[in-house]
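We now fix the convention by which a protein and its fold are recorded. The integers have meaning only within a learned vocabulary of local backbone shapes. The record below shows the convention in full.
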Amino acid sequence: MNIYSERIDKLREKMREVGADAIIVPTSDAHNSEYVGDHDQIRRWLSGFTGSNGTLVVTKDEALLWTDGRYFIQCAAEIAGSGIQMMKMGEKDVPRISEYIASLMEDREELTLSFDGRVMTAFEINTLVEKVDETKSLKLLYNDDLAGELWLSLDERPKRSCERVKLLDMGFSGLSATDKISQVREAMEAKKCNQLFISKLDDIMWLFNLRGGDVECNPVALSYAFISQDEAFIFLQKDAVSEAVRAYLASQRIIICDYEDVYEFLKDYPYEGKIYADLREISHLAYQCIIDGNGDKDSIVNGMNPTTELKAVKNDTEIKNMREYFLRDSAAMTEYIYWLKKRAKEMASGGEVLTEVEAAAKCDELRKAVEGNLGLSFPTIAAYGSNAAMMHYEATEESYAICKPEGMILTDCGGQYPGATTDVTRTVALGPVSDEEKTNFTLVLKGWLSLMNAQWIDGCTGRNLDILARGPLWAKGIDYKCGTGHGVGCYLNVHEGPQNIRWKYIEGSSEAVLKAGMTVTDEPGVYVDGKYGIRTENTLLVEDRCDTADGHFLGFENLTWVPIDMDLVVTKLLSADEINSLNNYHNEVIKRLGDRVSDEVIQYLQMLII
């Protein structure tokens, strides 16, 4: 029996003590954050699975872990021997968690379900309840955190982060907090709502022009916001607020409350009329507190936070800064690619071997040396050979591959700057590669170029455009189990909505019309289990293009200017237009990075022109 199976058994003991038939342990914090701090990594502690997306369900007989296609390979390896069964989300015959819970009640009249009400969303629980036959009884235990209590009793649980909150200068935000709150109130009025509750951290940081350090790589502070037509409240940890921040918030007529007091506030607030809240983001406990305070769940108007939509469209100040910082970041990434190519030649001549850890460290070193760099936007992925087939693989000092002067290395990385968040991926040949790898790299390149050069009529979403990136791969019966693109924040989270690029319709999921000022990534790929992984990624900015008798048209402006490794390109598979587009791209890389990289790098870039 390994340590994780022992922890699962002890969790079952706690379940028996409170009469729980099943427990759900998600990968989440009280803000439904994509990446959560160490304090909230309960699912990881229980299961051993380290991926960023996974939900554990434990009953007296089973332990099941749901995760998505990015992590199938990694999850299988990490939970081996624990007795936990992996559930491949989105695969045929794999039930959703709500469907699984409902199935547990097929032969019984009632079931008691335990979960921490602070870390599961109102939407998740409402959906789960709706799946249960209304003639049966589902009892919810959401005020206790059984898994967290177990962690505290058996091990040293990290304390909740409490980093100092920082102000974002108007030279980077472009708008004052007062201006943004006015925009939010207009949106509330359009929804006929008098109050708004927000728990989404990047939305709150954007709204109040603040930044923090409570989540690794995401410059956010643990917080909540409550806006009425007359008042604005922010809930922060007391020790995180400096006098400068306190004075600034006061100048913007924003009332500071203690982070821990939010649930009592929601119960006691004298509500008038409707309250707007995103049930996909706020916790079940917050939802229940609002109902307790308002006395009527119908008074809650559910919908995407107006801050999410406003934040997604970057203003002129943000766009100006993004262009500059993306160039700085692109120069660092280009220097890294040149360094990789040199190291590959040295290895081929008998030089010192290269490890994935060393590659990632070099990439981080170059990026952190960029003027204005404030850290990484996510931990750098440097994956060699078959490791690159795992989309979110991360080498460690204890577990890494040694690179050889053959095959490919995939590097996915990004930085944080006061005026931008970057995200870029390149796949680089370290020596000879197979014809299959070159062919698939070229198919990915064709899709990447096609999406980058797209022009479309106003009203399209990312689902309309996804076929441009996947088309060359689908024509060969190849696909990748993830989206093609995601929004990117501006000195905020590297993954930002509501915009995205994906092909699959997901019931209830957000689907946003692409608007000028939105950012989105272009990152098709090929992942062959046990062999190799390929991805090419740029960050793009949606821009207005033209107006004709048929309507308004938009397109993309490139923000990323990093070269493509031509050693992996089969030019005969490219059309004349594609070759011209690729040459234009590389000429633009040379022009834009000319005085930002070394002369050696410029010479290397000039050799990429076909």
Summary: The mean pLDDT is 95. The chain has three domains: 3-154, 166-310, 316-606.
